[in-house]
Amino acid sequence: NGYEVIDVYSDKETGGRKDREGIVSMLRFLKRACKTEPHTVIIDDLNRMARDIRVHFDLRDEITAAGAKLVCPLWEFGDSAHDKFTETMLAAGSAYQKDLNAEQAKRRMRARAMDGYYPFRRVWGYTTITRKGKGALLVPDEPMASIIKEALEGYATGRFQLKVEVARFLADQPAFPKTRSGTVTIETVDRLLKRLVYSGMIEVPDWGVTLRKGHHQGLISYETFLKNQKRMEEGARAPARADISNEFPLRGQIVCGSCGGKLTGAYARSKTGKQHGYYNCYQKGCDQFRKGIRKDDVESEFEKLLVSMSPTSSTYKVLKLMLEDLWDDLGRISMQRGHELLGQIRAIEKKVDVLIERLADTESDRVVKACSKKIDELESQRALLTEKAERTGKRRGTFAELYELAYRFLENPIELWHSGQLEWRHKVMKLCFSAPPAYLKNQGFTNPNFSKPFKMLSAFEGSKNINGGGGVRITRVQRYSDSFTKLSN
Length: 489
Known about the structure:
Layout (H helix, E strand, L loop, with lengths): L20 H13 L5 E4 L10 H13 L2 E4 L9 H34 L11 E6 L3 E6 L3 H14 L5 H9 L14 H9 L6 E4 L4 E5 L8 H13 L20 E2 L7 E6 L5 E6 L12 E2 H14 L4 H49 L3 H27 L7 H13 L2 H4 L4 H11 L5 E3 L3 E2 L6 H9 L20 H8 L1
Parallel strand pairs: 1-2, 7-11
Antiparallel strand pairs: 3-4, 5-6, 8-9, 9-10, 11-12
Helix pairs in contact: 4-5, 4-7, 5-6, 9-10, 9-11, 9-15
């Protein structure tokens, strides 16, 4: 027809929307270009412009209002009653085909979800592989999978007390997607924490797909997922502090030996202009109020305290003998626990069957809602118990492999402190002490409350100085008295 093609516009989005990128760009061009000369918009079929009756006629009106003409090789647009009726029927046919395709896709996706397959678009931490006769299956995508796993487990265990700490951790990972400013938003953290798919489970309530085990490998356990949901409901457990830094690693981690208030830290400038670090108590009414304690003195004495907590070689060896024996005992207990879990699962299944029968026999909306809610709760319990039963009796490695780092820490806690990372230094405080150590000027750390592992180690060595008492009695020590004597000699 002698047309000169100026540009081609296309979209990968559904034809049921008018705000598609290609359509928007074309209309913007027409409103500008048609001011100087007329233009023609060519579509190769009616369903290429829209698959919704309202969208079809809205777009046609906007193209005409911009001053352009709409043409199609398979259809001649007209204004007669016959032309309008036929065009409406063709547009309705396109809309019907779109809705039919959507329904078919939804049915297929629901069937996939019912079978335990994740039917939606790929999520961070996973990629998809196609198995013959099975379709697409999610598989962990490294290194993203390990990054997300560490973030989710860290929030569940309390390593990250706040969502903002999770966001900072993710922002420090080069492989994790970030905003233009190089940060990770709290909304992103929320989405990660709430994604059930990371626990290896599938549930689509809107489609009637109840909770079930997925065929894909979970990055975390379902138990960890539930812990995260509970933590989010409870809210933050500690306020975010912007003043915590590695320059004063004990700031907020130790307390005043006089009033019990947390010590803060700051630099003070001398007359010569040199800066000196001090820890201070700012509790009004305390006799140590604003009596600065030299930073070097406090941190030096704290390191001596950590060194003093290291057990002797003989005590350390006896501890390993005890824990290895306990490890074997727990293995036997775990097998018994597995049989108990299977019994609980069968009991839950019977309760679910009873509730389903009750649903079939009732017409009361109130009873239906109550039974449905109870079934959902029982299904969640069954999924959790099933996961525990699958793990029961299965160990992820040998005793030495799993507890090597724990041994190293108990043997020499100051090694982790010397890592220099503030996060791990705070972990040292939590692992070594049951309460923040108290420091008093000119006296040092007074009667610190050690955690149970270090109390136990001290009890082995017959210490009389833990918390001012005679230590903790460990009855299992009697079983190793001969070994302890031999090692000591």
